[in-house]
Design a protein that fits this description.
Elements (H helix, E strand, L loop, with lengths): L3 H9 L4 H6 L5 H13 L10 H12 L8 H8 L1 H9 L6 H10 L6 H12 L16 H10 L12
Length: about 160
Amino acid sequence: MTDVRGVIHRWQEGQSARQIARAGVVDRKTALRYIETARRCGIEPQSDISDELVAEVARKVQARPHPPPSSAWQTLEARRAQIEGWLMGPKPLQLVRVQKRLALEGVQVTYSTLRRFAHRELGWRERPSGVSAREAPPASEALAQSTVSGRDEQEHPDEL
């Protein structure tokens, strides 16, 4: 992560963007972006810098506009209610089945796009892997099974 305060401090000491880059702090173009943004925020070489100003400079430099949604994402958004019904209904479908149903209706989207859409837009999550508490036998049942098998825990402790 870029040390914004370090870049501004070096600039205030009189270093150029090229000198900051040679010192290995950040790339020259990155240093220029921070310096120009610091000037626009009212920071001068002789002024004190606060945490709020550093955060404002960092926020302005690092802010990126969100890319427009892809055509596949827009297609999924148009079928949002239908997909949500399939995934969250009384008999939820697996995501691969949802993809197949969409394909039968002429909607071709990749599985990864459908999965990202389901996670981000619908809050859908896959079931956790492993044995659930409902599937595991109770401790008393497991103990009964071990004694029924004929093994004595005290005679052969390494084999259990």
